[in-house]
Amino acid sequence: CIARRLGLAGVSVLAITGFAAGAQAQQTITVGHSISDDSHYSVGVDAFAEKLDELSDGAFTVDEKPAGALGGERDMIEGLQIGTLDAVITSTGPLGNFVPETYVLDLPFLFEDYAHARCVLDGEIGQDLLDKVGENDLVGLAWTENGFRHMTNNVREIHTPEDAAGLKVRTMENEMHMAAFEEMDVQPTPMAFPELFTALQQGTVDGQENPISVILTSNMWEVQDHLSLTGHVYSPAIMLASPVLWDGLSEEERGWFVEAAQAGAEATRDMVSRLETEGVEELKEKGMTVVEDIDTSVFQEAVEPSYSTYTDEHGSEMLERIRNSD
Ligand code: PAF
User: Fold this and answer.
1) Which residues contact 9 (CB under 8 A, 6 or more apart)?
2) Which atom of ligand 1 is nearest to the CA of 72?
3) What is the CA radius of gyration of the chain?
4) Which residues pair with 90 in a beta bridge?
5) Which of 113, 262, 267, 268 is the most exposed place for a label (fewest CB within 10 A)?
6) What pLDDT is recorded for position 25?
7) 143 C-alpha vs ligand 1 centroid, how far in Å?
8) 20 pLDDT band (50/70/90 cuts)?
9) Phi, psi (5° rounding) for residue 147?
10) Which stretches of the chain are assigned E, i.e. beta strand?
């Protein structure tokens, strides 16, 4: 897979109209996300802010709103569309509800590893999907990363899909994820992330699934005993901007935002990669039992029928493009 950062000509502005008015001196950009201020998203916001400051010579400053201060990911995407906030870093979890073409990215066991996922998202396929985002009253600045998702729960160690059967597991509000868990006879319980910690604490759900970086920095280890390194789905993230903000920027300023978002993505990916190994060790030290010797092929076989949830509606062209891009 040969990745290339596509030029600014490819920036998704298809749905954006309006006259570029130019920025005012010292404009503050509000950037929201759902996780903690020491997470991989937060590191990405810092790198974004630094690059934007450098490129704009201090004309833009960033006000980070972490930890769901502005609501869950779905609420924040809606906020962008009506211009109540400027930018968001979100997983693709709720994005398919706005841009159905992105559902393909949420299919289980689609990406072989981090290199494959990053290469696809940084290349033509990623750009085509950013263009689709731009057709839906949103501006896709850059793909960034959440990471491969792993299962945690409070009931038992999960080695096989049979061990997961019967558990009530919080999922993102995403049809593809829910369909996959149903194939394993897990009871998927969609819920916005800001509600999750309390739901786990109170036993409303038995478990959840998220990348190591989230499990660690959102203190899931305080309320979950078992972690299984299922890596069942790669979870991309995206930095989105509001069309209201975008309409007020000049072409040059738009270029700065894209470059800054790409710098943010790089910093985020570095942290995700580091925690993929270091974070597991830290979680063991914090008392979680970790099942590492997972035979992913049996999980893959179990969830395979869920692919029809995607192909029945969207066909298999994009799926094949991704599969053939390694
Ligand atoms: O589980 C989720 O909803 C997402 O993975 C999270 C933690 C909000 C990060 O995008």
Assistant:
1) none
2) 8
3) 19
4) 238
5) 113
6) 74
7) 15
8) very low
9) 130, 175
10) 27-32, 60-65, 87-91, 139-153, 168-171, 187-190, 207-210, 226-241, 289-291
Which residues form ligand 1's pocket by a CB distance below 6 Å?
Answer: 34-35, 73, 90-91, 93, 146, 172, 193, 210, 214, 235, 237
Ligand 1 binding pocket mutation candidate from 89, 210, 217 (most atoms within 8 A of CB): 210
- What is the pLDDT averaged over residues 79-96? 97
Distance between Cα 72 and ligand 1 center (Å): 9
137-144 mean pLDDT: 98
Q: Are 263 and 47 in contact (CB under 8 A)?
A: yes
Choosing from 42, 70, 146 the residue with most ligand 1 atoms within 8 A of its CB, the one to mutate for a pocket test is: 146
Residue 288 and residue 282: Cα distance in Å, rounded? 9
- Say how far apart CA 203 and CA 152 lie, in whole Å: 13
Residue 4 — pLDDT band, cuts 50, 70, 90?
low
One DSSP character per residue, 224-280 reads: --EEEEEEEEEEEEEEEE-HHHHHTS-HHHHHHHHHHHHHHHHHHHHHHHHHHHHHH
Which two structure tokens, joined as six digits, stand for 55?
Answer: 């490129």
CB atoms within 10 A of CB 281: 11
